[in-house]
Specification:
This protein is mainly alpha-helical. It is built from 5 helices and 4 strands. The two termini are about 20 Å apart.
Length: about 240
């Protein structure tokens, strides 16, 4: 295949643009800002779960408190009823003994319930403090996530600008090359990542392998307009004064 050496040389410009596009896409996939967003999303989820867990605990404690308060109120009303009957003086000796015994039992029961209530209320107070702490942690995580998302979006926007600039440069270069040469270049790039490279100091710039003396001698005898490819990787070899021929 014959192509003017000056046009072959422009393949290096195209390869440079394509290499930059490859770097841009690689950076897009491993963008530190995006990884930080993912980390903070996980952290926010963990902190949100912690806050919800404490909320559920508080709801359970509130239910226990209401239950204990209801029981205490019921015991207190029975005490008031028994005292009212005792104070009325209209009960017999046997009933009097039973009422006194029941009052004693009710007082013990109320004391136990009130102790239980105090314990649950103390646990609720501690849970409320935990919930406030969890809420503060969640707020910070959400704020950090919002900041990280802005940085990620800025980084992505910068990559988009760089990719568009490379795409424009590539579009301007494509018209220079014959369709057959461009086809060879694109196929080679698709298969091996690099379509063309400089032959420099007897070394292929694509695969970095130094060509043997026989191959170098063959290339040196090849007319400049004839397209030469690396015998190892297949990349189009662009020959210049740096090629050591």
């Amino acid at each position: 295949m014959n192509v003017e050496s000056s046009i072959q040389a422009k393949l290096l410009d195209l390869a440079g643009v394509d290499a930059e596009l490859t770097r841009i896409e690689h950076r897009r996939k491993v963008l530190p800002e995006a990884q930080e967003v993912q980390r903070l999303e996980t952290e926010r989820s963990t902190r949100k779960d912690a806050a919800v867990k404490v909320e559920i605990l508080i709801d359970d404690l509130d239910r226990d408190i209401r239950k204990l308060e209801t029981e205490i109120d019921g015991v207190r009303k029975r005490e008031e009823r028994d005292r009212g009957m005792l104070d009325s003086g209209g009960v017999g000796a046997k009933q009097l003994s039973e009422l006194q015994h029941e009052l004693t039992s009710l007082q013990r029961r109320r004391s136990v319930l009130e102790d239980d209530l105090l314990e649950v209320m103390e646990r609720r107070e501690a849970a409320v403090a935990d919930h406030q702490h969890a809420g503060a942690n969640l707020s910070k995580a959400e704020s950090d996530l919002a900041d990280a998302a802005r940085l990620r979006d800025q980084a992505v926007a910068d990559l988009d600008v760089a990719a568009q600039r490379c795409a424009n440069d590539r579009g301007q270069l494509l018209g220079v090359f014959p369709a057959e040469l461009l086809g060879i270049y694109d196929k080679q790039r698709a298969q091996h990542g690099v379509g063309a490279s400089l032959l420099q100091a007897r070394r292929c710039g694509a695969c970095r392998i130094e060509l043997d003396r026989g191959e170098i001698a063959r290339i040196a005898k090849t007319e400049p307009q004839i397209v030469v490819r690396c015998p190892e990787c297949g990349a189009v070899l662009v020959r210049t004064k740096q090629s050591g021929l």
